[in-house]
Amino acid sequence: MVPLKKSICIIGSGIAGLHLAYALKEDFDVTVIERHTTEEIRSGRIMSTQVHFGSTRKRENRFNMPNWGEQSLIESIHITIGNQKLFAGMLQEPALSVDQRLYYTHSMKDLAEKGVSFRVEKVDKERAEALLDTFDLVIDCTGKNGPLFPFPIEPKLSPFPTPQRKCIVGYFTGIQANDPLGVSVTVLPGLGEMFEIPALTEQGPVTILFLMAIQNTELDAFKGITNAEVFTRKMSDAVQKFFPDVYKRLDVETFKLSDEKSFLQTAVTPVIRKPYLMVDEKLVVGCGDSVFLNDPITGQGCNLSSFCAEQLYETLIEFKHSKWDEEIGKSYWNRTKQYVTEVTEWTNAMTEPLPEHVVQLLLQGAQDQVKANQIAQWFANPTKAFEAFFSRLNV
Ligand SMILES: Cc1cc2nc3c(=O)[nH]c(=O)nc-3n(C[C@H](O)[C@H](O)[C@H](O)COP(=O)(O)OP(=O)(O)OC[C@H]3O[C@@H](n4cnc5c(N)ncnc54)[C@H](O)[C@@H]3O)c2cc1C
Question: Which among 350, 289, 340, 296 is positioned nearest to 17, based on CA atoms?
């Protein structure tokens, strides 16, 4: 007789939940509970920006996730400090940014067609506990709205009591792409940063402008704006004033939001938690932002969620036929802790003024294309960034 597959409930179908569902669906009986319908997500507000670097795209491939083709592939990272463009470093493997509204809904429909059960429900804490009785394992993938379970905070990795930046994001048309096509990072010391990201949406290619403003500075100029036209005008003014390199490529006549809901303002208080817990002698694990929530400043959230999803998958496969208890949770945390620490410490450092030795490395990148390429790789392989910031090794 074929043994029954263990049952897993994933709460939340964001990056973490989706990567897990694809990875786990062959070996386990997977149910995903998501508070929004696909139609609500598709026609709703943008949720984020996102750049899936090479290792994340390899995992998407490994788990047979949807393929987004070759359009808008991101080849490079452009770095500017103040008004000084330093370099464009080439990535070793192309990256891709797909609007999460499109990525999530397409993946949810595809998974449902492949036999994964979906339920639409906003799970509360009581209900989350009740799910423990029904499933062999519950995985909390509720993102920054979560967690639903009290995973303990790791104080050393969670130094900030408040957000370090205001996040101001719009998806626009009317900007000529940079060359080579890439993410442009502009650091304005004392004010914040701007990320320009080429992305794919349901409407076609767009340019994301993502301002990270230090609170109560001149860049923090969008307070209270909820109207799309006012937001667009304000963004055009901010680009003209602070980001002349981008403004040169902005066509004032055609510059507009790609749709009426393609803008958002938010702020994130970073917090890292131990991603497992015993509740009434049953193991619960967390994956993605629900347990590893960093400031978006280094663009690692999706990539870290995907990395941890793969590590959780590997853990569950390794112990597929054992009892799932606290040891499984420990094993998952042992597999992820070092990488989570490196991403988090680098990200937290990026919210502070850049250390002098890092500024010197960036200046070297302006003189030396090999160095520039190595710095671009920090974003694709944050372990390299961690070493450059903290080990004082050359990149
Ligand atoms: C402004 C901004 C910019 C960012 N830029 C980048 C970037 O450039 N690159 C990058 O890699 N990362 C970026 N991030 C981070 C990235 O968006 C997240 O790390 C990533 O989406 C985390 O995935 P997740 O699955 O953990 O959570 P989410 O993507 O938030 O998904 C969580 C899911 O759970 C569902 N859910 C929540 N609560 C419940 C509940 N109670 N019941 C049922 N369902 C529930 C939600 O509806 C959602 O679908 C950015 C984030 C922000 C806010």
Answer: 289
Ligand 1 neighbour 198 (Cβ under 6 A): no
Give me 230's structure tokens.
């006012």
Helices 100-113, 15-24: axis angle to 10 degrees equals 20
- Measuring CA to CA, how many Å separate 244 from each of 6, 96, 179? 56, 25, 16
CATH topology (fold) of 7-50+98-160+269-350: FAD/NAD(P)-binding domain (3.50.50)
- Ligand 1 and 32: CB distance under 6 A: no
The Cα angle at residue 98 between residues 96 and 103, in degrees rounded to 5: 130
Q: Whose CA is nearest to atom 1 of ligand 1?
A: 48
**Helices marked H in the chain — which ranges?**
15-24, 38-42, 54-62, 100-113, 125-134, 228-242, 244-247, 301-318, 326-350, 356-367, 369-380, 382-386
Instruction: Classify domain 166-266 by CATH architecture.
Output: 2-Layer Sandwich (3.30)
The pLDDT tens digits for 152-197 are: 999 999 999 999 999 999 999 999 999 999 999 999 999 999 999 9
Q: What is the pLDDT of residue 395?
A: 47
Topology alike, domains 7-50+98-160+269-350 and 166-266: no
Enter the tokens of residue 359: 């500024």
Q: From the CB of 209, is ligand 1 less than 6 Å away?
A: no
